[in-house]
Amino acid sequence: MKPRLTVVVPVPRGAGAEGNLEECLASVAAQTLAELDVVLVEGGPAGGGPSSAVAHAAAERDPRFRIVHLAGGEVPGCGAARNAGARHAFPHTGYLAFLDADDVLLPRAYEDLVGLLDRSGADLATGNVYRLGAAGRSQSARHPAGRQTVLGTHVTEDLTLLADSFARNKVFRREFWDRHGFAFPEGEWCLDEAVTVPAHFLAGAVDVLREHVCYWRLPEGAARHRRPDPRGVRDRFAAVAAIRRFLGDAARPQLHAYRRDYDRFQLTEGLADLVAALPGAAPETRTAFLDCARDFLAGVDPRVFPELPVELRMRWYLVRAGRAADLLTLLRHEARNPAGFAVAGPPLRRRAVVPVSPPLELPPGVTRLGREDFPVCARVREAVWRDGVLVLRGHAYVRNVDAAHRHTVGVRTAVLSCGRRRIVLPLRTVAMPEATAESGQELHCYDWSGFELRVDPARLRRGGRWEEGTGRSGWCWRRRAGCGWRRRRRRRRVRGRRRWCARWRTRGRGAWCG
Known about the structure:
Layout: E1 5-10, H1 18-29, E2 36-42, H2 50-61, E3 65-69, H3 78-87, E4 95-98, E5 103-105, H4 109-120, E6 124-133, E7 136-139, E8 150-153, E9 170-173, H5 174-180, H6 193-202, E10 206-217, H7 230-247, H8 258-270, H9 272-276, H10 283-298, H11 310-321, H12 324-336, E11 342-344, E12 351-353, H13 364-367, E13 376-386, E14 389-398, E15 410-418, E16 421-430, H14 434-438, E17 450-455, E18 471-478, E19 486-494, E20 497-506, E21 509-513
Parallel strand pairs: 1-2, 1-4, 2-3, 6-10
Antiparallel strand pairs: 4-9, 5-10, 6-7, 6-9, 8-10, 11-12, 13-14, 14-17, 15-16, 15-18, 16-17, 19-20, 20-21
Helix pairs in contact: 1-2, 6-7, 7-10, 10-11, 11-12
């Protein structure tokens, strides 16, 4: 059987990793794509550790598994092991994949990804990812659950692919990999994005698979959950700097415009885990982070910062100013109140205030508030049929705007859009303390953000008949006196048609909904 896909798996040397490795290799062996070449890369002294025994046992059971041993007294990093595995791939295999020892594949992962590449001729294919932790399975935040299968897209057409920086959920076309000479950094941290982000840009086309292909395990062992050290922090920022140089290369002028998008992603998501780890990090790690982060921020386009949410503007301002103590105070507050703040100032100059003592001194340009700083958080908690009527119960509130009483901000009506038809349905405000409990913060009360909506199916008929179609819903709001928001009715033209819209206004700032 001629293998079509080479899978590279570094063999870990730490104690307690053999159980995860055994489950990982079992998931590879169970793939519905049978034409595999699995390269298990060992480092350090030969024949050492329980994980090595698991790898050798897998190679003895299955002829598709083989061991590649890297000589040397030191255990190489994951990047070095991956690069060695790629070099040892059979020349005739058409595809290449990488997997960590604590990942678990779903049975059809490689068959589906390789199938997309066979159909489209794209250079790489990527799939959806589950997180697997102590609390069970959850959706990876970097891989939207609602994404559809798309053949032949590209990161310049879909910027959400900037967050798709894992290697574990991808299959690369071998010719594409060898032509560009991709190699993982051989530092302490295994930094997938140093390869996957340039690959997204260099690929002629990328296939995106809706279905999940693997579980990204979050192990509980201390060895894997150690706090970042100075070397790891520098490695991480070195990878970011390398990608920024790649996007700013004079030989690729067509990519220069995307460096700003990449910087924005790093400020909002990419570096979030490093920032979150600072309160528990050692002093030398915090110093390394501040030094590297200030170098990074110095090269970011200044126009990016005003576009960030207020909580991120405050965070990165303190980093750039080198105010480590104030930054830790802010992060500890955010740990208890994610994106939580109080609103102060005159109506035309609303600003965010972090309720800590002593107060944080921040410039007005950093703490200013706009529409984007008051997102709507909504959830339908129950949908049941009662006496032939659909009853929906849930909650909806504006973040950082209290809904502590029945007559504070809440949902008043829902608008169902079915094609050109719009059906306005009244809502009943109900108490729902679960909204506050599930918000993960202790600064604001959303107990009266609950609603109950009754949908009579007879209202959805057209001319007494049922029609197939899709519907959308929207919300109209009411306010408490003194909060600075008012509801207005305005008529405007949209593509030649007239329609009524509800407009929110905050002393000169407005947001359309409807």
